[in-house]
Amino acid sequence: xxxxxxxxxxxxxxxxxxxxxxxxxxxxxxxxxxxxxxxxxxxxxxxxxxxxxxxxxxxxxxxxxxxxxxxxxxxxxxxxxxxxxxxxxxxxxxxxxx
Length: 98
What we know:
mainly alpha
């Protein structure tokens, strides 16, 4: 199974692609490290109506995967998760490893 942090990043990448800013500092930091990301829409103003049907189905599917038993829980689910872990993931992604 995929770790929940990977699933969360995968799900939130759909929102990030549409310019959504995140309430989570961790997600904002992660996506701000991507060359393609342009966070321009505040979370309370973002409308899911901009999402395609395929994107909505993908989000629903990923949420379902996140809720399955046996999915490896990761520190992303906890408030004390260190931002350094996401910075390492960004470095790995830039090297083509995510």
